[in-house]
Write a structure and sequence with these properties.
Residues 45-68 have a biased composition (Low complexity). With 606 residues, the protein is an all-alpha fold. The protein has 2 domains: 3-132 and 396-604, no CATH class; 140-381, no CATH class. Helix content is 56%, strand content 2%. A 3-stranded antiparallel sheet has the order 1-2-3. A hairpin with a 6-residue loop joins strand 2 (92-97) and strand 3. It is globular, with a radius of gyration of 25 Å.
């Protein structure tokens, strides 16, 4: 599809949403007050009960009502648990994303709908598999072996090795993208960690824990550094975690860096639950240190402070860097698990920093000026990325909170339209050299390796994912159940935008596959796995759609794409995960083909 055509189609769909909003407002104005009172007094339920309306059932793709197939979901009747993690599609409550570990699973009604549309039962064991599709399997008992015994975390590596890794990290793309430590402050931490004492003081233990956590982070991408010795990241993590009881007795920048690096390590390894736990602890330490408030305005980042003020200046700037990194992870974890965020926007200073605010003093870095210029657009802390995260937080709060489930169709469609406008305003403000397109064309050739940085690639994934999240919320509107024609046309267009954004996610992954750095695999793999669920639901909803066959082929391409995202040798648990993805997507593709065949048979039998 040409870009002009896709943009014209998008405009028309948005116009339909606008008309649906007006119709919903009219319907809301004519609603009986008693009915409205009954809606507000509904109590939560664990079932996806049929909406109490007299209107016709939502039509299937072949035009037949679906009342006999599955009960439609009424947004006023809510299941218990984490609301942001609930899966709705075209008026049906499909299931949940577990608030414990992020696994998507289909509800009983979701399974019934699959059966009714595909004509066959789903292999539930395959669909549930061993865990979430964006989380590797990590046996919890191995996290803290010998915890009651270890008090010093074991022996640190040779100091020269630590200093070498620090220099390599400071001059690396990862170190600039994720400034988890301040170079000068960490030199002080190293000094304390290697201080010749009995090693039992809290200060020394905290410093040792920070060094172990840093080595764990370095282990994620050490293969890029051929000169450095091999690091056992898991052993370093266990050593740092064995010291946490003592580390958390102090509230300082060293403790914060330690806990944050542990959270980042687990998230980058696909250990979503463990990462979320450490992230929550990091947020509490961050608040205690005042990192959620901007106190750096008195001294600009590029200003060289006086010697006496240098440490204080560095601590303040590092706190803000860690705040923004924590803020980004917080909103990501919330959407992926369905759990409430740990950081409340209303209690934080979210004033965006300047483009180069986080760059450390020139003497800290081993990169060239051109390398640092490039870093201004590769950092996870660049303003474009932070602004998108703020929008993500607003989407979660406005469309997927407990309060959001009480909204009328008119309120929901208004919020969808406003958030869509805000996301589009963000998109047009991004530098044209890496600005995401409205839709990513199917036939786009592979992007040249190195054309987009890792953070720019993430921006594209995030944009399409958030577009899908915004419009997927229309699946909860009551009009799916009451059959309001004008409103239903609008929400159908909104849902179509969600499906198209999911397709764009997979098309973009296919084109940018060589740019996905292996260290970010477990963070990036979430996007295609989320997209396939939306595309699969649409196959069931519209099996006779002209693009249905192509969507089945698109689903079938996902396992190969996932394999291509990782270049290094996989661990045994990761191999199990890749096989699980193969089985999961294979089952969805099979059910999609069954739905297409059944719809064709039913259509021919009329």
């Amino acid at each position: 599809m040409c870009r002009a055509g896709s943009e014209k189609d998008l405009v028309e769909r948005l116009n339909r949403i606008e008309r649906a909003l007006e119709a919903a407002r009219r319907n809301q104005g004519s609603q009986d007050p008693a009915d409205e009172e009954r809606d507000q007094s509904m109590t939560p339920s664990s079932s996806s009960a049929r909406a109490s309306t007299d209107g016709p059932d939502p039509p299937a793709a072949d035009g037949t009502p679906e009342a006999a197939q599955v009960r439609a979901y009424d947004s006023s009747v809510r299941a218990s648990g984490a609301t942001v993690g609930k899966l709705h599609f075209a008026g049906y409550y499909m299931g949940d994303i577990s608030s414990y570990n992020g696994v998507p699973f289909f509800s009983a009604d979701g399974q019934e709908w699959i059966r009714s549309r595909a004509g066959e039962d789903a292999s539930i064991n395959t669909l549930l598999a061993l865990g979430p599709l964006w989380q590797t399997q990590h046996p919890a008992p191995t996290l803290l072996p010998g915890f009651p015994v270890l008090t010093t975390g074991g022996e640190l590596p040779d100091r020269a090795v630590v200093e070498e890794c620090l220099s390599l990290f400071s001059a690396s793309h990862f170190g600039l993208a994720f400034p988890v430590i301040d170079h000068a402050l960490f030199l002080d931490t190293i000094e304390v960690a290697y201080r010749p004492t009995d090693g039992k003081s809290i200060e020394v233990v905290a410093a040792k824990g920070c060094v172990f956590a840093f080595f764990a982070i370095v282990s994620l991408f050490q293969q890029q550094w051929k000169s450095s010795p091999e690091i056992d990241g898991q052993a370093c993590v266990m050593a740092a975690q064995s010291l946490l009881v003592m580390i958390l007795q102090v509230t300082n920048i060293t403790a914060l860096e330690t806990v944050f690096m542990l959270a980042l390590y687990h998230l980058f390894c696909g250990h979503l639950h463990q990462g979320a736990m450490f992230h929550s602890a990091a947020c509490r330490v961050l608040f205690m240190l005042g990192g959620h408030l901007d106190t750096t305005a008195t001294c600009t980042p590029n200003q060289t402070p006086e010697a006496d003020d240098c440490r204080e200046w560095r601590v303040k700037n590092q706190l803000r860097r860690l705040f923004w990194l924590s803020y980004k992870l917080d909103k990501e974890i919330s959407l992926r698990t369905g759990q409430p965020p740990s950081i409340d926007d209303e209690h934080c200073d979210l004033s965006l920093p300047q483009m180069n605010w986080w760059t450390q003093c020139a003497g800290d870095l081993g990169g060239s000026p051109s390398f640092l210029d490039e870093a201004t657009v590769t950092s996870a802390l660049q303003p474009d990325s932070l602004q998108l995260t703020i929008i993500k937080s607003k989407i979660s709060r406005t469309l997927y909170s407990v309060a959001a489930l009480k909204k009328t169709d008119a309120e929901m469609l208004r919020d969808i339209r406003e958030l869509d406008d805000e996301l589009e305003s963000w998109r047009t403000s991004v530098n044209p050299s890496y600005r995401p397109t409205l839709t990513f064309p199917r036939g786009t050739v592979a992007l040249r390796k190195g054309r987009l940085s890792m953070e720019e690639i993430i921006l594209h994934f995030e944009y399409h994912y958030l577009m899908a999240m915004i419009h997927r919320a229309s699946g909860r509107c009551r009009c799916w159940a009451n059959g309001d024609g004008c409103t239903l046309e609008g929400v159908s267009s909104s849902l179509a935008l969600s499906v198209q954004a999911s397709r764009s996610t997979l098309y973009f992954l296919r084109a940018a596959i060589h740019g996905v750095e292996e260290v970010a695999f477990w963070m990036v793999v979430f996007y295609p796995m989320s997209a396939i669920i939306t595309i699969f639901c649409n196959l069931l909803h519209e099996p006779l759609n002209p693009q249905a066959e192509e969507d089945v082929e698109l689903l079938g391409s996902v396992p190969k794409l996932v394999e291509g995202m990782r270049n290094r040798q996989l661990t045994p648990s990761e191999l199990i995960h890749v096989k699980m993805v193969h089985s999961y997507v294979g089952e969805l593709s099979r059910l999609g083909r069954c739905a297409i065949s059944k719809a064709r048979r039913d259509s021919q039998g009329k």
